[in-house]
Amino acid sequence: MADRSFLTQLRASGGPSHLLLVLLDRHRVMTTGQLARATGAPERTVRYRMERLRAANLVECARPGRESGSAPRHWWLRPAGARLVTGTAAAEGRPSAMFATHAAAITEVWLALTEHGPAIGVEPEEWLTDRAGWQEWDGTGTWSRRYRLTPDAVTQVLLASAGSAVIFVEVDLASMTQTLLKQKVVRYLAYAADRAWLGVHPHCPPLLLLTTTATRAATFVRAAQPLLDQHERAYATGDRAEAPVVAACGHVCDPARAIVEPCWMLHEAAAGELTLAEILTERLDAQAESEAWHTYQDTVVRRRADLDALGDLRSVSGLADWLGSECAAAAMRAVVGDDPAKFLDTEPNLANQIIDWSRVRRKIGRFEARDLARPLVAVLEDRYAALWTEQARRLLVAEDHLVAAHPPLCRLAATLAAGNLATSAEISMLGVPPTGTRRRLQHQAYDDYPARRAAAVDSLWQAMGRRARRHTSQEKLAANFDKEHLLICDTCELIYPKPEQDETLFDRCPYCDGTLLDWADRASIVSLTRRLDDIREHLQAVSRRRCAPCAVPTRTDR
């Protein structure tokens, strides 16, 4: 009968005996010697504790294949012991001799890795056996079902100064035919083809088989080679971290040699025999290479998408309506400019705000987009004021251009005086000396007009009688001729003779793209001097914070 005080002590304080139960729950079957090595206690002490646990109906043991003699006892949990550790338990059962031997062999691999791995820079971090290590996933095909890969163990190890790697461990005690072993490779390759390891493991874990002899290991590797070649032809992506790796050795009876010696045969015949550390190092190198490649690809693709989003904003119709602000729309176009990449690099925070809003804008309505853009609009309106102020000051200190008063400068002044932002090309013009003056362009525009006007006036004057001459003058005749034959640009004030009847009429200034007005309407034109005065007044108002960023009153507005 179970000792109630002993059971109470196990439940309340655990202790060495409870640790033995935990080990059996993790590894299913362990020998007395394995329990002693795992706990660091003498084997005699472990044997005594296990007998007490057995007397409490928490564990049971057997000598697989022989129930007497000096063969080691193989221990496993009974339902009461499992409930004590995990709270649940399967029905009572007795493992077969083959199962117990196989489970103990898996445990021996774990012990060998724990005892000898740190010496070669391989530190075990996690060990999962049986169902805890099974891999389940849904196939990627149209009619695929749920698949399962059932390695004997899955272990995660830490390589010194390299990182964590994952291994699928298979243990073969010569109880499986090569056909069954080949089927394990087929399931493993299906796991790799569906990339079921993504999000679970850092790389495709290698499948390592420990079997009884080197000959049996070599046969397994040779049988796996055609399957791996076929997989590579069908699924190769160039990413080494996705490539499956199969290796085998013949030291299942002495797994310590499998941990430290170069005994692993890979499916690649030219690889020779490698150590476990070399196999894991290759996996970690492949993982690092893959991460670098994916990081680069993600960066390039994300950057390309960001640049496309910024570039698309320049052609969005009604951008001011989407933002609810003319100033914000103008500032957005100005900061993005003709080089979105430069803007993204120099002002990533503002650029990302604009990009995020742009992407969400496509999925919502206009009014929702305005509400969402309010914080961004406030930033852009402040930027508008700063940009306008900077452009205005650059214009006012460009003495050479102001003296030349050439049409592009007049257009720039008209733009700023109206409260608008100039383009980068218009502003960059101020950085180079002017190539011409308004006076020279006016002379070219007149061409032979003064001579034609003088001839026409003289002809009219000669044709007039003495009485008619008393009521007019040649100056009036010239003024009437100008009214009939001249056009003037409303921006740069260049004067153009009207083309002859057989020539094509034009209504835009070829130098500043201003509107050409009839000579009689010239009084409505705002001069360059007045526009510069408006800009100076607005600069003072902005500095005193008395004027809205985009409201620049012109003299024609007053």
UniProtKB/TrEMBL annotation:
It comes from the Bacteria. InterPro entries: Replic_Relax, WH-like_DNA-bd_sf, WH_DNA-bd_sf. Pfam families: Replic_Relax (PF13814). SUPFAM superfamilies: Winged helix' DNA-binding domain (SSF46785). This is Uncharacterized protein.
